[in-house]
Amino acid sequence: MTPEQNLANLHETLPVIPVPKAIYKPCLIDGKYLYVSGHVPIRPDGTRISGKVGLDFSSDEARDIARLVGLCIISSVRNTVGSLDRVKRVTKIFGMVNAVPDFDRHPHVINGCSELFAQIWGDDNGVGTRSAVGMGSLPDRVPVEIEAVFELHVESAEFDA
Amino acid sequence: MTPEQNLANLHETLPVIPVPKAIYKPCLIDGKYLYVSGHVPIRPDGTRISGKVGLDFSSDEARDIARLVGLCIISSVRNTVGSLDRVKRVTKIFGMVNAVPDFDRHPHVINGCSELFAQIWGDDNGVGTRSAVGMGSLPDRVPVEIEAVFELHVESAEFDA
Amino acid sequence: MTPEQNLANLHETLPVIPVPKAIYKPCLIDGKYLYVSGHVPIRPDGTRISGKVGLDFSSDEARDIARLVGLCIISSVRNTVGSLDRVKRVTKIFGMVNAVPDFDRHPHVINGCSELFAQIWGDDNGVGTRSAVGMGSLPDRVPVEIEAVFELHVESAEFDA
Question: For C15-105, where are the alpha helices, taking DSSP H only?
Fold first, then answer.
């Protein structure tokens, strides 16, 4: 099964990622690396989610939100490289939870995204290094933001001429 | 226009970055990558800035502070590679705002740095991936800290012998 | 002196890093890079540490905890590449302190880890770029979490076939 076939089997609707209003690129290809900016949860209908984890959302709800952030990242990656099949593996994710000061279940929350990536790229290539940590605040008071680095298949890498 | 010419046209005075008291390097060259440690705001006269964004500083004031952090990064980059013309593009910035728990305008704040980089390296090469997020606290209570990765022009890269 | 000899001379007992319960790899080799996930303090007897810096721990106590996190990273790196002698240098560390909102001594805390790395890999190769910052919360309420990127010696790098 290819990553695109794995995604199709999940029957998920990918959110549409809007053009950034601020000054950054959602993704950037550098040789065999695909850098991904911090992504926030946007539902397939375009609505946003805001609130603190441990106050407005339980850790299970936040885990579902982290999965949605994963879908947003996947949507962005596809916009950039055309097909998930061009991505070889997950190198690194940095999972940020907008939580109350005593929150302690960040790994459980970020697993929502990590599980999705493992479903798409497999239990080895879909699982990279990770930190799952708590922020003091996040833009628009989103509960979860995740940034990532992926490795592209060599034939998909873009090198200097 | 070259990046050095663009900087000259901004008529900015670059802060002098002190030798680190703690155990780190402000910048490190690795092949074609230039890694930049988290930089904090230091004014050209050497004075520091401290306080929380959303309490001691408005988001517009914090945006000016983020631009100052960008100038500190530029000063450090120049110390390390000699000329901004050796830098090809911005790969990634991680913008950290020391904000109150309900602050929500991190992208507006970090745009202060991103705008500066776009003025110097252009709207394409000067704009990379980014996360703009809120920390619980920062060293010396600085309101903004930014770390970055730049890509050097191939002829400026330093590889193993 | 080699890094392994330097470690032996410190007479430290390395903690055993448990297999992750969450979905991530503690370390990942990519070409000449060794990416290291966020590591938390685990004592050699397997016990954990939790609490806020500036409330439950002083900055000096937190510095010792950051050194322990450094030992956990070293234990993980050895599990992955077999010997510390395969690591050429520290490229980057991201030091996260779970502190009260007004805490200001993050560099002092993270120096506990940086000093250890300098003792093992030397004052040049053992010192990379760094950010030392304050988080709103951390998993299991640990006081310090550190992630890192190391560079491997070329002959130890793993490239695509």
Answer: 59-81
Ordered by where they begin, the domains of chain A are 3-13+25-154 (3.30.1330.40)
Mean pLDDT of chain A, nearest integer: 96
How far out from the chain centre does Cα B135 lie?
Answer: 17
Range list of β-strands (E), A3-161: 27-30, 33-39, 87-98, 129-135, 144-152
C135 touches chain A (CB under 8 A): yes
Contact B111 A52 (CB under 8 A): no
Residues A88-137 pLDDT 10s: 999 999 999 999 999 999 999 999 999 999 999 999 999 999 999 999 99
Residue B37, chain C, CB below 8 Å: the answer is yes
How far is the C-alpha of C26 from the C-alpha of C36, rounded, in Å?
A: 6
Closest Cα in chain A, distance from residue B114 (Å): 6
- Asked if C66 contacts C146 with a C-beta cutoff of 8 angstroms, the reply is yes
For chain B, the chains sharing at least 3 beta-carbon pairs closer than 8 angstroms are A, C
Residue A143's nearest CA partner among A110, A102, A104 is: A110
Q: Does residue C110 belong to the interface with chain B, where contact is any CB pair within 8 Å?
A: yes
d(CA A81, CA A102): 39
Write b or e for each residue in B28-43: b if 16 or more Cβ atoms lie within 10 A of its Cβ, otherwise e. bbbebbbbbbbbbbbe
**Is B63 touching A (CB cutoff 8 A)?**
no
Residue keyed to tokens 């911090």: A38
> Interface pTM (ipTM) of the complex?
0.95
Rounded Cα–Cα distance for residues B138 and B136 (Å):
7
- Pairwise CB contact (< 8 Å): C25 & A133: no
Is residue A21 within 8 angstroms of chain B, CB to CB?
Answer: yes
Rounded to an integer, what distance in angstroms lies between the CA atom of residue B126 and that of residue A24?
9
Pairing mode of beta strands B144-152, B87-98: antiparallel
